[in-house]
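Recap for those who missed Tuesday's class. We walked through two folding examples back to back. For each one, the amino acid string is listed first and its predicted structure tokens come directly after. Nothing is annotated here on purpose, so try labeling regions yourself before you check the end of the notes.
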Amino acid sequence: MSPSASAPVDAGKEPPKPPRSGLDGYFKITERGSTLAREVRGGFATFFAMAYIIVLNPIILGSAKDMYGHQLDNKQLVTATVLTAAFTTLLMGVIGNVPIALAAGLGVNTVVALQLAPRMSWPDAMGMVVLAGFVVMLLVATGLRERVMSAVPLGLRKGIAIGIGLFIMLIGLVDSGFVSRMPDAAHTTVPLQLGGDGHLDGWPVLVFVLGVLLTLALIVRKVPGAILISIVVMTLVAVVINAVATVPSWGLTTPKWPGNPVSTPDFGLVGDISLFGGFEKVGVLTGVLFVFTVLLSTFFDAMGTIMGISDEAELTDEKGNMPGINKVLFVDGIAVAAGGASSASATTCFVESTAGVGEGARTGLANVVTGGLFAVALFLTPVATMVPSQAATPALLAVGFLILSGSIRQIDWSDPTIAIPAFVTMLMMPFTYSITNGIGMGFITFSVLRLAAGRGREVPAAMYVVSAVFAFYYLMPALNLT
């Protein structure tokens, strides 16, 4: 059983208990060894861990121009981002019944902003995102997506989970300012450095360090709500520090009570799309490749996240498969299309949902809480974004450790044809800052090594197909297809 900050030690061994209410029965709260309090805490923890997207997604999309020089309005982008996150997270909770929240995907929004938009209009670019979502739903309906996930051997699944754990730990370190990218002027092959200039300095970093120590201390003490308590306490500390000290920058969010906490949503971008206009601008082949690029990123980012979180939340069977996975995958496809339809870019499963799982969340009720908070944020965005990343990111380090410690022992390190691909997967996710890249390189390595060992027949056909698709994806720039 994976270690958890809140889960009872013998939860996996106890026989299922009868539901205590209709709500309990629908979400299977008791059956999954959870409680209403854990689900609520988990929903709050996930929201605070991913609330930065309310600010970051509009910055990424709003800073780009389409081929006509048009830029998207920031206020409308905030509304689109929050609205889509609220809708898709609630949908995943009610239909999929898993604690996996969704919002505009980082990486995909960069592709939309820097690759699609400059060669077409914004409605054209968002239309291609919608088409990618339709393809995802088609793959789910035909069973192909589930077949791909079922083709992944257990050892590689654990490698994916560990890679996600390392990835979210790196996200936490970078977003908090504990480590930062070396300036290009440094002319060095070392990509990261401690702090902003090789040293830890400034109040924000201190808040992060104290938050990490507090979170880990509470987990060691097995205090219920450890992650959420830490986020709240360190936010209050940050607010006090910001009031009494001079802090040059907290990053995206400043821990300060806003003068006007209420904001009026602007739905001007919702529905402003053109499904096939982009093909007229760039041609059919390039248009198909653009849709393929969005599809590949959202498909495997979500796949890795679903695998990692479902494993950590103990929602999988002895073979590592999650019952009812098709509902989860179909909602993810809806989310991709919904993100494009609202002009928020492709919406996908957020790895920060592990913060809620670390609090003990095991059902879709946690998503209802997270989605409800996003809905409230439509009108209280200034309040929702006052939690600094330095107060929220310690949760990612703590949960990353829990994922790592719970999965690493389950890989067969004596078999190099599974150990090496798992190792490649878990390293490439943080080193390339991409879940998709980690999965792709792991799949290719697995297929090649099994062939080299004369065990090619043990590799499912779906794995060969996906490996070939990834190889083509990586070769596209060399073939001048992008």
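Example two. Treat it independently of the first, because the proteins are unrelated.
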Amino acid sequence: MSEGNRDRRAALPSVDRVLQAPSTVALIERYGRGLVLDAVRDALAASRAAHDSATADDIAAAIAEPLRRRMRPSQRRVFNLTGTVLHTNLGRAPLPEEAIAAATEAMRSPTNLEYDIDEGGRGERDDHIAGWLKRLTGAEAALAVNNNAGALLLALNALAAGREAIVSRGELIEIGGAFRLPDIMQRAGTRLREIGTTNRTHLRDFADAIGPDTALILKVHTSNYEIQGFTAAVSATQLAPLARKHDLPLIEDLGSGTLVDLTRWGLPHEPTVAESLQAGADLVTFSGDKLLGGPQAGLVVGRADLIAKLAKNPLKRALRLDKVRLAMLEAVLRLYADPDRLAARLPALRLLARPRDDIAALAERLRPAVADALHGVASIAVAEVKSQIGSGALPVSLLPSAGLALSPTERSGRAVENLAACLRSLSIPVIGRIESGRLILDLRCLEDETDFVVQLAALRKS
């Protein structure tokens, strides 16, 4: 080792000296001694390896940013400007303030989760939401589990384990993450009896498939795709008499599910849970965090005797909701008791029903600020775009919207990807979509205009 390198190594402070420096003490107060100690040792080792000299304050300054990044929550707030309102990867439905307040209250102290205050004994956790679901759907009974795949898994296992469930081939859906209906049925211990063809299934196909091993008929609402052209499908209204004739339960999986007629707010019609029950479905399964606008949950409503069988199944305990999500779900369901104010109070519906002209006006207001922040990097134009309701909820139904189209000045192959990465690096990451060589920021879901604009200053410095 040269004399100069030996001198520089000797100039490095000891670990104890760095830990006693006022700037390091402040870091220990913020992050704890263990993390800071490890960071100091790593920084000193790196300086020795590079033959660098450093003071205690230099080391403290060097570890401050890595510590901040390490302690930053991995799940962070983002601006969803993708154009998909109920975005699976970005948390689906934003929750109303009533649900947030209910969750906070439930977390703060013990609750009567499974305690009947009137009787002074054990209660049922589903009672907190069952009454509202019965009122809003007309069902005899209801229960909740952790998501809709869990709801369907529970129903199939409780009612058709070791037996057959009849499903149209055109309804054998695959949802996000390569999660397929046949796989759910297999895990439930149910044998799939698929009938018909991809594009056409008739009532006689169901009738011909019924045999001694048939446990139920399953109808699946294909909310995440659409088959067009020479098609035929059998409705729940048609299937119900056949199911009753053979004393078979008819289950309809609505997937996204909605409790209200969305056409009231100018949105595409989606079958409501009440409509499915009125059509003759014995059980209906649907999600809580998509069109319903609540927390992640799987809901089952329908006949009381069938719900009772599901409630007694061991899987129910494995899939049940905790007190926090039940509190949030109850708060969301209460909003549906006042449909006249629902769009104003339920964020998911408010964003879906947001007028295009209001979004276009927002785009005009924001364009100068974004153009200034990206001066010389990209040109900015107001653009007419189409929003998507959800990746798994009416994905083929598009809503007129407006946004900003960012065209990189640089014409390299990765220029638009680099621009998207730059926006994602902001303190509140901005997530858009790349389309035809441009970064599109659909503004339908942007309500916090102030926070969006304030952080643009960081782009001018980068």
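Answers for example two:
The domain at 79-88+352-461 is CATH 3.90.1150.180 (Aspartate Aminotransferase, domain 1).
The first strand starts at residue 79 and ends at 80.
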